[in-house]
Design brief:
The structure is a single chain. This protein has 145 residues and is mainly alpha-helical. It has a domain at 33-119: Orthogonal Bundle (Arc Repressor Mutant, subunit A), CATH 1.10.10.10. It has helices spanning 14-33, 40-56, 61-68, 72-84, 106-127, 134-144, and strands at residues 88-93, 96-104. It has a two-stranded antiparallel sheet. β1 (88-93) and β2 (96-104) form a beta hairpin. α1 crosses α5. The protein is elongated, with a radius of gyration of 19 Å. InterPro entries: HTH_MarR-typ (IPR000835), MarR/SlyA-like (IPR039422), WH-like_DNA-bd_sf (IPR036388), WH_DNA-bd_sf (IPR036390). It holds the Pfam family MarR. GO terms for molecular function: DNA binding; DNA-binding transcription factor activity.
């Protein structure tokens, strides 16, 4: 028995199209970040950390994971690697000895600034095909979240 679907085929399925667009966009991000020796997750955590520090001071690892939408355990592992590279500092929170407060080092700030420009350029190039529809696209994504 053949199951009837709501879509005439993959090119009519929003989920499948989102999957394909996501993969293509991720390739563009990997290419933009390769010269900086950063994975996309590392960049997202560094950029989120940069934003949080600038707006509310050094966050905990938990707060950073919430901001970035990443798994706390994975976040902790990635942060250890970034700390080993000298890009971030992880200090014990004076209010909670179990928590770590995060900050960017001078090297981390310089790297995130360079990588941010390349990521923003790659984003602009990737989404240029949307033209005037880009803001509506962003609003639609925001509603889905």
């Amino acid at each position: 028995m053949v199951t009837v679907t709501r879509f005439s085929g993959p090119d009519d399925s929003p989920g499948f199209l989102l999957w394909r667009v996501t993969l293509a966009w991720q390739r563009a991000m990997r290419a933009a970040l390769a010269p900086h020796d950063l994975t996309h997750v590392q960049f997202v955590l560094l950029a989120s950390l940069w934003w949080l520090v600038g707006h509310s001071g050094p966050p905990s690892q938990q707060r950073l994971a919430e901001q970035a939408g990443t798994d706390p355990m994975m976040t902790s592992q990635v942060l250890r690697k970034l700390a080993d590279r000298g890009l971030i500092s992880r200090e014990v929170d004076p209010a909670d000895s179990r928590a770590r407060l995060l900050d960017l080092t001078a090297e981390g700030k310089a790297l995130v600034a360079k990588a941010m420009k390349d990521v923003e350029d790659a984003d602009a190039a990737y989404f240029a095909g949307l033209g005037d529809e880009q803001q509506a696209f962003v609003r639609g994504l925001t509603r889905l979240l």
